Structures are given as C-alpha cells and as structure tokens.
From TrEMBL:
Pfam families: HTH_IclR, IclR_C. Residues 69-257 form the IclR-ED domain. GO terms for biological process: negative regulation of DNA-templated transcription. GO terms for molecular function: DNA binding; DNA-binding transcription factor activity. SMART domains: HTH_ICLR. Residues 6-68 form the HTH iclR-type domain. Keywords: DNA-binding, Transcription, Transcription regulation. It comes from Orlajensenia leifsoniae. It comes from the Bacteria. InterPro entries: ArsR-like_HTH, GAF-like_dom_sf, HTH_MetabolicPath_Reg, Tscrpt_reg_IclR_C, Tscrpt_reg_IclR_N, WH-like_DNA-bd_sf, WH_DNA-bd_sf. This is IclR family transcriptional regulator.
Length: 266
C-alpha cells in the first residue's frame, strides 16, 4: 500500500529525473513548464539541489544541469551491479525458452563488456564469457547498442579506419571496415528492430541481439542469443528476436527504461 504523498520530495525527484532525461542543461522556466510546477517552487528546489551538489547552475547560459552529487549516485548504481543482478534471471529464462545460449553486455567505448552469460545445455562454451571485451561493431550486442545512439556519437567513436579493429582469430566474415559500412549495418538494425552477426566473432556461430533502453531512451545494455548457425535459419531469426525483445523490454521496465528508440537515433 503506497505511503502518504510528500509533495516537496516528489517535486525534487521530478526535477532530477527531468534533468537526467535531457541532452544538456536547460532553463528553470523549461523545467517548470515541463513539470507543471510554479516557477517559484522550481527556483527554490533548484537552489537547495545546487547547495547539495545535485544541480549545477550555469549563470551565463541561465541553465541548470546535473551536478557532481548526481554523478556519485550514478557511480553507486554502477558499483552495485544492478544490471547484472536484475538481468541474470531474465537471461536464464530466455535460455530456457529458446534452448540457445544468451548473454548481457554493456558498451564501453568501442567495445562491449559481457556482464552475464547463461549457457544452454549441451552447447559449447563461447568467447562471450563474463568480463570479456569484444569490438562493438562486430558483435550483435554492440550493433544493437550502437544503433540506439545518435549517429553523431557513433561518428565520434569511429573517427577513422584505425577504429575498426579486426578479430585476430580465424573468422568467416570481417564486418564493417568504414563508417559508411557501419552506418549501413546500423540502419538495417533500426529497420529490423534487432541486430545480427554471423561468423564475425566465431566461425559457424551467429547471434541476434536487442538493446535495453534506460529512462532517457539511451542504450543501457544489449541482450543477445548465440547459436550454431544451422540451429536458427535466417528466416527464423525474427522469431528469436521477438523472444529477446520480450526479455529486453522486461529488463528495461525493471530499470524504469523507455520502450522505444529516441528520435535522435532513428
């Protein structure tokens, strides 16, 4: 049963949530309008948040953004590994439904870092073990995550040909080697609603992945299923993606995420 309402606390959290969802600092008047609050209330609460370090005021621009204390909350969130704790049972359930191995990964620069792996019965071990990093542009998880970013950010991550590192192992496909080729791959991900890699990480294996979005519509993680190529025909990969999407949507709900890609990533 919900407890009694505390208007000041509710309004303060609403302001912080609004600022966290913005691409940059915003005027107090914009916050007041967006939240339907009196300007005097917004200025008062922003003053308190500024004193505590949760908000920073940019006087020349007359705008407010998140402060260091808000970043410290974010760091605490990361240290407690909520994505792996919340995601592990969901990924395990996905493996039970599909009979194929699955994993959860997050984006670290141009790499993906695997934080959960659940291997299906009678399936071989994969390179995507917990703690392993792989080039994002070659993996299904990485492509799902990159496709959810504004393309300007993708361009910043891949400024030249040297950014497109290749797998040193013997693989069957090389993946995109230029920004133009990567953009084509990501356009396909957005059109299909899921990402695929086939033979670009391990010969004979393919993966299908979907992004998990946070409250601002940014990619928090990627969930992928990896399988021997002959187990899932290309025509059936959309059905597998639908199962992965169920899992991604539920994890997104648990972290109070968004259901659709932000406009900037489309």
């Amino acid at each position: 049963m919900p407890g009694p309402k505390v208007p000041a606390a509710d309004q303060t959290l609403a302001i912080l949530s609004h600022l966290a969802a913005q691409r940059g600092p915003v005027p107090a008047s914009t916050i007041a309008s967006a939240l339907g609050l009196p300007r005097s209330t917004v200025y008062h609460l922003l003053g308190v948040l500024q004193e505590r370090g949760f908000v920073v005021h940019l006087p020349e621009a007359r705008r407010y953004g998140l402060g260091v204390a808000a970043f410290e909350l974010s760091s605490g969130f990361s240290r407690q590994q909520p994505l792996s704790l919340l995601g592990r049972p969901l990924v395990a359930a996905l493996v039970d439904r599909t009979g194929e191995s699955a994993h959860l990964a997050v984006l670290h620069g141009r790499d993906v870092l695997y934080i959960v792996e659940e291997r299906a019965r009678r399936r071989p071990s994969l390179v995507t073990d917990v703690g392993v990093r792989l080039p994002a542009h070659l993996t299904a998880s990485g492509r799902a995550l990159l496709a959810a970013l504004p393309f300007a950010q993708v361009r910043a991550l891949y400024p030249d040909a040297a950014a497109f590192v290749a797998r040193s192992e013997d693989v069957e496909a090389t993946g995109p080697r230029t920004l133009k080729e990567l953009r084509g791959v990501l356009d396909r991900v957005r059109a299909d609603g899921f990402a695929v890699e086939d033979g670009e990480i391990t010969g004979g294996f393919a993966s299908v992945a979907v992004a998990v979005l946070d409250h601002a519509g940014w990619p928090a993680a990627g969930i992928a299923s990896t399988f021997p190529r002959e187990n899932v025909a290309p025509a059936d990969r959309a059905d597998l993606a639908a199962e992965i999407t169920r899992t991604a949507t539920e994890l997104s709900r648990r972290i109070r995420g968004a259901a659709t890609l932000p406009d900037a990533a489309r």
